[in-house]
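Notebook, student rotation project (T.W.).
Task set for the rotation: take a protein with a known small-molecule partner, predict the structure of the complex, and write up what can be learned from the model alone. Partner molecule chosen: zinc ion. Sequence and SMILES entered below by T.W., checked by me.
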Amino acid sequence: MERVMQGRTLLCAQWVIGHSDGRHVVHENGVVAIEGTDVLHVGASFDGPVARRIDYGAAVISPGFIDLDALSDLDTTILGYDNGPAWKKGRVWPESYVKRGPYEMYTSEELAFQKHHAFAHLIRNGITTALPIASLFYRAWGETVAEFDAAAAAAEELGLRVYLGPAYRSGGQVTDEWGNIRAVFDEARGLQGLAEAADFAARIDGIAGGRIRAMFAPDRIETCTETLLRRTSDIADEMGAPVRQHCSQSPVELRLVREQHGCAPIEWLHQIDALHPNWLLPHGTQATETEFDLIAGAGASLVHCPLVSARHGGMLKSFPKARARGITIGLGTDTHPADMILNLQIGMMTARLADGMEAIRSEDMFDAATLGGAAALKRPDLGRLAPGAKADITVTDLSRTLQTPDPVQTLMTSASGRDVRDVFIDGRRVMADGVIPGIDETADAARAQAQFDGLIAKYPGRTVGHPPVSEIFTPSYERAAP
Ligand SMILES: [Zn+2]
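Predicted structure of the complex:
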């Protein structure tokens, strides 16, 4: 299939979500004209010459989603769905595993494959800009430059817009056999990780015609020292790159940060003067009023990941209140499936559980997945379909769905990521009729499953007490005899 499109392309559909005067606007029976990497025109019609016209019928053409915490591995979080507590189920390293020396549980080929596979999965779900996140539990320590070189190659091949940087950390958590979790630190290893991340950032920032940019990913706040974060902040400021730091997401984190620094996570970031406008903060579910004020004051952004929070019985408290404070909020998928539409839907439900039915409307959540992500990244050329913006476009088919009178409300009530039909990024058609050129979806799914099964088989090695797999992951119903 033709990928780099010569000449103008005109897209038509029952619904087009355009943009004017700083807000999205809905065109019924609208068109989008693409020229090169950019949107040329959005409106009711286009009179200029075009090289091709694609009519999607009952569908919504919208800005592609911006995923600030984009699932980029075979997500081990789903294994904990009915299997807790985390420290008993291989999600906190036992002392015995650390003593023998933590090791990589995937080969470098497997690490490269899962990035490529995950990036294709993001595109299938209409995500056009991604800041990858993966678990460090199955790693020797942090993410590696080799794996991110492979990630850059995958993004280049698939056409995904990405911000890339290997996650690094100066500490980790260790549990004894009774579930007493403590922090362990290795400052030199953290600083080495930052040095390697900075070299990688300088090397890849702006390649692939600007589609690949650098980011910094100091892992989770309870695993980072002051020196590591201050240096990160300085280097990222100088490069104009975003920094993503997980904080305010778990009670164990709150306890460890309080033990280490005597305050709450975002208070500490503020105290050490690390928190700047380029900081992206997943998940904020444990944040206090004071901390929300500090985020707003710093001009930093919250990364809301509704699905992963709700699966664990949590929610951001609350999306409407954080928004009313003027905090920029973007969205992240974070867990499997990387279905941004599902995240929008769960985000609506949890916001209403927190604050009531009237506290939020569909457009508030849709803004977060588009304009909010763009604002967090300081990218006024993303997250909107307007002349001069990047042609990053998602087409969601509504032909088999019961439609409300409004396309955004229909996405919230009746659609799923599997309805995404076509995706354009930087003016390239990277998915057509659900097919990504050069990808054998069935073969890749089988390979991913085999790789995931292999990792599950290794769980006893890093689970406290080293029980067999069948005791770590308990069945729903009793398995019937064959
Ligand atoms: Zn996360």
